[in-house]
Amino acid sequence: MSLESLGINLRIKLVLATSWFIENTAKLLGYPSTSQGMPIVNDPNEIYGLPLHQPRVPPSPDPTNMLEAVFGNVPKSSAIDKFYYESARDGYYNFYIEHYKNVIFLPDWVSKWIQVNFTIGVDTASLEIIRDTLFSLSIYFMFFLQFRTMLYYFITINPYTRPWVYLISLSDWIYDILFHLGITRRATFFGFPILSIIVNGVAGVIADALNHLVFTMPFLPSEGQAGRVLIDGTPKDVIMFRYLPSLWFSHPIPDKLREFWYLQRPDIYKFMKNNYGHLDIDFLPNKILKQVYESQQNHPDSNSLADGVEKIKILSTHVFCNSTIWLHECGNTLNCKQEILLTSFFEHTDKLI
Questions:
Q1: Which of 127, 135, 132 is nearest to 204 (CA)?
Q2: 14 and 97 co-located in one domain
Q3: Based on the structure, what is the number of domains in the chain?
Q4: For residue 200, what is the enclosing H or E element?
Q5: Chain-centre distance for alpha carbon 114
Q6: Cα-flanking dihedrals φ and ψ of residue 237, to 5°?
Q7: How far lies 256's CA from each of 12, 106, 210, 245, 328, in Å?
Q8: pTM above 0.85, yes or no
Q9: Are residues 221 and 291 in the same domain?
Q10: ∠ CA 242-247-253 to the nearest 5 degrees?
Q11: Which of 185, 208, 225 is the last residue of a domain?
Q12: Domain range for 12
């Protein structure tokens, strides 16, 4: 028998002996009658009732050109999508998001401060740009932290010489701050420094949290209501934001938004006036309100020509708004009737053919 055949036989005997030992040991412990294994689920993320929003951090590589193939693609966040909808009952600025277990909202006081001080009403594009920028910076910062740690493994490279010093200076500032706070002297484990691991982990947690952050303007985060809707034919848990935002009752609605309603979307102005007109809320833009208030204060009882002209201006503005609403509703009605007539015509021609 050759030496190779002897080695193969020994390996086979070793595997069989190990298998026999493990099997008989398990039988002594009651297997398989006392051990049924872990429960089987379709989705391991839904064990506790709600799914997890699990984008990859850092994002998976997806190069589209040679430059990205060599240096990597620009990291992009995978934030939770918002689905807007209009309803004759709920209004025009309703939206919902899928209810994930790890969704993150701003605190109410932070969201309120941003909306009041920066007059952010409906459009959150600027906030989303800031969020995506911070996400990209966090990913790049993690890269430089990892490069700084890796550079110290090459004992032939002095990291404090050019050009390496320019790269590590992008991440050394955080260590300088922590050193002055006295944290670096205590961040050791059996003499091994673990500060770089901690800093890298914190940067990853921040980047991951930005992926789950959702802006709820013009609503406050606490106004969300849990519910279920059909998405692609599948019922899913969602958080809905609808009706009148509470900040529009306690604070003035942004003037640009009111002016947009009054001049370009009179249907929204009509909806707000009909449904929330009993509340002490100004839906007219400041320019129109100023004309009304000045007319009432300066000429409370006068019948002068100037007062009449001012009233005519205000009345003409309201007539223009109401006529625009009427034309908009007529256009919608004609479009609906046109679709019905065309459908009936095609069905009739199909029968004739």
A1: 135
A2: no
A3: 3
A4: helix 195-212
A5: 16
A6: -75, 135
A7: 80, 24, 29, 17, 21
A8: no
A9: no
A10: 100
A11: 225
A12: 1-37
